[in-house]
Amino acid sequence: MKTYFYFIRRCVSFRFLAMVILTIGVFTAALILPLSPVQAAKYTMTISHIYPEDFLSNEESPSMERFRQVVEAATNGDIEVKVFANGQLGSEVETGKACQRGKTIQSTLMSSGAMSSFYKNYQLVTTPFLFPNYKTAWTFFDSQYFADFMRGMVKESGLRYLGTFDDGGGYVAFTNNKRLIKTVEDIKGLRIRVEENPAHITAMKALGASATPLPWGEVQTALATGLADGQFNAPGVNDAFKLADVTDFTTWSGHIYNTVTWVVSDKWFQTLPEDYKKIIIRAAREAVTMGHGVATNISVIGWVNSCKKFKECYILPDSEKAKMRDITQPAFKQWITSDFGIDAALVDEFWSQVNAIDAQLESEWMERYLK
Fold first, then answer.
1. For the sheet containing 159-171, what is the strand order?
2. For the chain, which domains are there?
3. Distance (Å, rounded) from C-alpha 323 to C-alpha 328?
4. Three-state DSSP class for 39?
């Protein structure tokens, strides 16, 4: 019996000693490990945008998250991607200027108005009724022609083009308090709030409306008090900001295709090894493609909700769009050539490329699926 208890005591002692040794080892490791060098990223890519930091209300946040995942995984962490949403780093113009330098911000996303202040020719994208459908728009923005067109931005501003997102879903819809817009005649006499963008002002004047430039923060009040009769934005935006509370009618006209342009500092981009440049390009292509799906989903949901909340909703037919296009495009061309200084030949070339892509897609679709 003594031997048995002696054996038990010995076992307990050894177990206790082992636990003590293990505890000391873990504690020592905890002290030593933080002192070991952690592999830091060789490059940092800070991306700024003004959209909410969530994955349901906009296409930019989920697309940037996917971009981050792909880049960091492909470079094994050598490039660290940091995304700042909600305008945390400043306005679009402010972050665009910082991106030109490429030191604190390496990449940013800008709407068409801000984009035109860095690359004048970009204003052509605001042409009324430019794209007949989403697929034509996406194919055009991914085309060789548009890549060459945007390459001029590097020389002009030091910013390199990465891709185009459909701002809020791309195609805009009117909302107003007076009447349901079904024809061009219904627009005449309406006071339509517009961004402080001369292209939008020109289009509204051509259609017989009174353009009322107002900052976004004043829109709700202007519509509620009658300072403006209506406005236009993508259906998802109209729904998210509850414009059915201050306007009665909505028409999905698609007269403007709102965009968000994604750029990167060329100065920073050129510091990357060639294989990392390729990773950035590949990841950007995937992120933009994903963004198209998210944006159209938001837009369709916004439209369905609009038809539940507004008194009346209406989708403008192609025949009426064609009438409005024939009115607005000549006025736009007159403005952009005489007041904005874009060469008329470039306008014609730009438009003809869109038309050529649309015709090519139509031909391919019929050849593949109609037969």
1. 79-84, 43-48, 107-111, 257-265, 159-171
2. 43-172+255-309+313-362 (3.40.190.170)
3. 9
4. coil
Q: Which pLDDT tens digit goes with each residue over 242-272?
A: 999 999 999 999 999 999 999 999 999 999 9
In angstroms, the CA 259 to CA 355 distance is 19
Yes or no: say if 258 and 172 are a contact pair by the CB < 8 Å rule.
Answer: yes
Q: What is the C-alpha separation between 4 and 343, in angstroms, rounded?
A: 103
Query: Which residues, 6 or more positions from 353, have their beta carbon under 8 angstroms from its beta carbon?
Result: 140, 143, 145, 146
Tokens of 354: 């869109």
Q: Distance between CA atoms of 10 and 360, rounded to whole angstroms?
A: 87
Q: Are 61 and 14 in contact (CB under 8 A)?
A: no
316 phi and psi angles, rounded to 5 deg: -65, 125
Question: What number of other Cβ atoms are within 10 A of residue 103's Cβ?
Answer: 12
What is the C-alpha separation between 20 and 52, in angstroms, rounded?
A: 52
46-102 tens-digit pLDDT:
999 999 988 888 999 999 999 999 999 999 999 999 999 999 999 999 999 999 999
**Running DSSP on this structure, what letter comes out for residue 216?**
G
**Could you tell me which of 315, 84, 85, 113 has the C-alpha nearest to residue 213?**
113
Is there a contact between 295 and 169 (Cβ–Cβ < 8 Å)? yes
**Contact between 299 and 234 (Cβ < 8 Å):** yes
Bridge-based pairing of strands 173-176 and 230-233 is antiparallel
| 146, 119 contact by CB (below 8 A) | no
208: β partners: none
Report the distance separating Cα 233 and Cα 228, nearest Å.
Answer: 14
The Cα 243–Cα 229 span in angstroms is: 12
